[in-house]
UniProtKB/TrEMBL annotation:
Residues 19-28 have a biased composition (Basic and acidic residues). Residues 14-38, 50-83 are annotated as: Disordered. It comes from Conchiformibius steedae. Residues 119-197 form the Smr domain. This is Smr domain protein.
Amino acid sequence: MTFHDQLKALHQQAQADAAQRREAERQARAQQQAQEPDFATLMADVTPLKHHNQYYPPPDRSPIKPRRHDPHQQDDNQNFYIGEGGAHIDIPASFSKNGQGANDIKRLQAGHWQVVADVDLHGYTQEEAQQVLNEFIRFVQKRGVCGEIIHGSGLGSRGYTPILKSLVRRWLMQHPDVLAYTEPHPNNDGAVRILLKRPFRRDPNDV
């Protein structure tokens, strides 16, 4: 099965899962509404207490601070996610880490590593795109270390803000198995070529 076949199956599964979640949420809301008692009916025979000039402190209306999201935290399926809708800063055209720097980028641009698979993310939501990227990383690592991701330039997005392009590149910059990425085609910022760590394979003779 090619990755595009896996991608099609993944997309269908993601749609089915989303529909199942929506139906479960709808049923939960309906059940909750059915179980909620009529407050006015319950309080019909209750006589309110007389006011005794007792002081009640004002309610705390300070905003609730959300818990900080750890972008490196993975779920039970070992999938990697980052928050959607991050600040749209200038994402670099090339990125590398782990000390290799310019060498990895030059080799990626020169085609030093064989591109073993590519994926086109057009038409996916941010959540679906991250699901596909997780599958794509695993697919590439089983066959090599280099792949190509087409995310588009974002010129068709609302306000000409490259939402998917920014998400993909932020995701790659933070993923622990991604060593580098770069734009492989001159005058085209709609795709990136990536370099991955070689997956650790335990020696079968090592007990």
